[in-house]
Each structure stands twice: as structure tokens, then as C-alpha cells.
Amino acid sequence: MNIGQAAKASGVSAKMIRYYEQTGLIPPADRTESGYRDYSDSDVHMLRFIRRARDLGFSVAEINELLSLWRDRSRQSADVKRIAAAHINDLREKITNLEQMADTLQALINCCAGDHRPDCPILADLEKMTDDPQEQPRSGNLKRLPH
Prior knowledge:
The chain is mainly alpha-helical. The protein has six helices and two strands; from the N terminus they run ααββαααα. The longest helix has about 35 residues, at about 75-110. InterPro entries: CueR, DNA-bd_dom_put_sf, MerR-type_HTH_dom, MerR_fam, Tscrpt_reg_MerR_DNA-bd. It is found in: Cytoplasm.
């Protein structure tokens, strides 16, 4: 099947299929005599695997590792579990950071009168900067502002 058909069957866009091939995540597709990519059912199965892994938030590097394990019938499930466990730890850390950012923004919104006056605690907070940008909190943590 051609790249458009493979894209439709796998749920992975043709652009991403080309990218995965270019980066080595998937092997180069066979080519027809006229030079068009020709994908097999096995290729589509692999693309679906990649799509599902991407849907779960795995990075391309993690997917590459998972694909290697998927292809290796002598693999140990402990290796797969290790990758998944590390990934869920990363996801939980991101969730915590996002919740902190949301809390910070909510606190700023609560402090903002939202009226005709130009004073705005949201803008005031955004303009705050220490002498060293590396000292700025990155997690969204903010001291509570007085009301």
C-alpha cells in the first residue's frame, strides 16, 4: 500500500511516517518500480504500535527502545516495565508542575480586580525578575499575594 493508505490504516500522518523513516525509528519502506513507498501490513502494525505509544506520551527515544524490545522475542518484561515506570514518573512530575502553574495563575487571577484601573498583579508578577534568570522558579511556584 502507498503512504497515504498506510497513513489512513495506521492513524499516523504521511508526514510523520516520513519523519519516522528519516530518523530511523522505522526502517525505510520498500519501493515500487516507480519509486513510491510500498508498505506492508506488518509496517502498518508497527506504525499503529508507534501511534499508541505516542498517544501515551512516550518520547521518540522511548518508542525506539520499546520497538527494540517488541521485536526481541527473548526480551525480559522487566525491561519494558522499567521504561513504562520511568515514563509514568515523568508524567506525574509534569502533572504536578502543571497543577502548580494552574494554582499560581489562579492566585494571580484572584488578586486581579479586572476593572478599568491599569494596576494588574498578573502583569506585575510576569515582569518580576531576579538579577540571575537561573534563580527564577520554573515550577510555577508563587508566594501568595495579599488581597
